């Protein structure tokens, strides 16, 4: 296992990308990995789609089961699986677009969470007035 010259770096991949890549390299399905660490398959899918993040104890379990370093899983730096052989380099324009998409996804997730909190506050305020 190697650093892969940036293939799984923070610029080229998300945590979810690295998790999916390591899972595939280990020959595990989402269901098999979920069974090994005691979570539902939907949790693994959420992590791989960058919709949720695992807690520290789960990160350590993932690292051990998948045979990658914890730092690689988090940042792409360290021991990880080999990069695919048939990959062409990503142009600067595409890298910039990917970064912008990740930023938008993060902002959308934060806005969704804020909306949920506001909705809960509104429901509580309505109950108090009734």
Tertiary shape: flat
* Biggest sheet details: none
Helix content: 55-70%
Q: Would you report the number of β strands? A: 0
Terminal residue distance = 62 Å
Low-confidence runs of at least 5 consecutive residues: 1-5
Number of helices: 6
Query: What amount of the residues lies in strands?
Result: under 5%
Radius of gyration, Cα only, in angstroms? 18 Å
- Overall mean pLDDT stands at 82
What is the topological layout?
Blueprint: H1 15-25, H2 30-37, H3 41-48, H4 56-66, H5 70-75, H6 92-129
Helix pairs in contact: 2-3
Describe it for me?
This protein is mainly α and 130 residues long. 63% of the residues lie in helices and 0% in strands. Helix 2 packs across helix 3. The radius of gyration is 18 Å and the shape is flat.
Q: How do you describe this structure in short?
A:
It contains six helices and no strands.
Which terms summarize this structure?
mainly alpha; 130 residues; 63% helix; 0% strand
